[in-house]
Structures are given as C-alpha cells and as structure tokens.
C-alpha cells in the first residue's frame, strides 16, 4: 500500500511536469505565431520546442503507466482478499 502510494505520487509529479511542458510548448508556439500542425513545421526541431506529437506520445506513455499501476492495484487487492479468506480458513480448521 505504501509502495503504491509512492508510485501514485511519482505519477502525479510526472503528469504535472508534462502539463508544464505542454504549457511551455504552447506558449512558445504561440509566440512564434503558429498553431500546432502535428509536428509538420519546417526545421529539424533539434534545439526548438518539442512537437505536439512528442508531447502527445509522452502523455500516452504516462497514461499507459497509470493504467498499468491501477491494474496492478486491483490485482493486489484481489490477492489480499484471497489471502484473508485463506487465513480465515486456516484459523477455522485449527
């Protein structure tokens, strides 16, 4: 439970960083006078702001990680319940 709380906190921090990055990219793009065009702007983008596709990919990765952690939490909950039932059975049989 404590490990899960730590993981959740790390995910929240990562989401916050991504939101800040997205805001920064949006502001930079607006200051250049353009809208998001799916990363099709000219230039190699090596030193410039991240493309919308890069940000979207990173957000998708974080969402998958959140979903994976939620799934693990559900599995752990089921396992804990099974262990409680087993423990009660053992105690009753003694």
Cα-atom Rg, whole angstroms? Answer: 22 Å
Q: What class would the helix/strand composition place it in?
A: mainly alpha
What's the main sheet like? none
| Mean of residue pLDDT values | 79
What is the oligomer described by this structure?
single chain
Keywords: Coiled coil
How would you describe this protein?
The chain is mainly alpha-helical. It has one domain. Helix content is 77%, strand content 0%. The chain has two helices and no strands. It has helices spanning 2-31, 52-93. The two termini are 30 Å apart. Residues 37-47 have low confidence and may be disordered.
Can you summarize this structure?
The protein is mostly helical and 94 residues long. The chain contains 2 helices and no strands. It has helices at 2-31, 52-93.
Features:
94 residues; mainly alpha
List the topology elements.
Blueprint (H helix, E strand, L loop, with lengths): L1 H30 L20 H42 L1
Helix pairs in contact: 1-2
């Amino acid at each position: 439970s404590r490990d899960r709380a730590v993981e959740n906190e790390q995910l929240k921090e990562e989401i916050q960083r991504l939101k800040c990055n997205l805001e920064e990219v949006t502001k930079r793009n607006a200051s250049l006078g353009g809208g998001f065009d799916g990363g099709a702007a000219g230039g190699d983008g090596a030193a410039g702001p991240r493309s919308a596709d890069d940000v979207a990919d990173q957000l998708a990765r974080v969402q998958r990680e959140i979903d994976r952690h939620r799934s693990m939490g559900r599995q752990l909950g089921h396992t804990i319940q099974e262990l409680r039932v087993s423990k009660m059975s053992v105690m009753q049989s003694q």
